[in-house]
Specification:
Layout (H helix, E strand, L loop, with lengths): L9 E4 L5 E4 L3 H12 L6 E5 L7 E3 L8 H13 L2 H4 L4 E8 L3 E2 L10 E2 L4 E6 L2 E6 L2 E5 L11 E8 L1 H12 L5 H7 L5 E3 L1
Antiparallel strand pairs: 1-2, 2-4, 3-4, 3-5, 5-8, 6-7, 9-10, 9-11, 11-12
Length: about 190
């Protein structure tokens, strides 16, 4: 199962190679969820308990998704939400199925309803910088092989504009600022 234009969204591959896609904006959240509604397969969708989060989708049949895939997608969802920007260390993630989501005409852009039971998972907000498919990505640490890791990040006070300089100075890594900005969450950082 493929979502052909996934690179225009937030995305990464889990440690098991499952593609995870998340919206970068309310418009992209709508586009992504409308796009998957037509898939025959049931899919797992995630969002933070609070507003201001990507809807993240694991692009794999449910029966092929492991607990580790779920954990990695949950961390990704929390890290790219407003929770990171607020500087919190943890986020509560809601996990549900594609068949549970709905949208009516009164709902604003990016807002969807969820019917039935929702699984709740608390995750720690930490990411690692690596390259996947030749593109810089900020992913959960378990989704990266140790030798691939360029840096480890958590919510903090370092502004995104200063992150490239700090990585160059402290980690001896030279990264394109535009690529780094595209790969990382909104808000501040600390190197861990």
């Amino acid at each position: 199962m493929e979502f052909e234009k996934y690179k225009k969204y937030r995305w990464f591959f889990t440690s098991a190679g499952k593609l995870v896609i998340g919206g970068k904006s309310a418009e992209q959240n709508d586009e992504l969820l409308l796009g998957i509604k037509n898939f025959e397969e049931e899919l797992i969708v995630m969002h933070t308990a609070e507003p201001g989060s990507p809807f993240s989708v694991i692009m794999s049949e449910i029966k092929k998704i492991s607990k580790k895939d779920l954990e990695e997608c949950a961390i990704f969802t929390g890290c790219f939400s407003r929770v990171w920007r607020s500087g919190k260390k943890n986020a509560e993630i809601h996990i549900f199925k594609k068949s549970q989501i709905y949208k009516d005409k009164k709902m604003k852009t990016g807002t969807w309803g969820v019917l039935g039971e929702v699984e709740k998972k608390k995750v720690e907000l930490k990411l690692t910088l690596i390259r996947q498919e030749g593109v810089l990505r900020a992913v959960p640490e378990t989704a990266a092989k140790k030798k691939e890791i360029l840096a480890k990040l958590a919510p903090g006070k370092i502004e995104k504009t200063n992150l490239a300089d700090m990585l160059k100075k402290e980690k001896k890594i030279s990264l394109n600022e535009e690529e780094l900005a595209s790969a990382t969450p909104s808000g501040g950082f600390k190197l861990i």
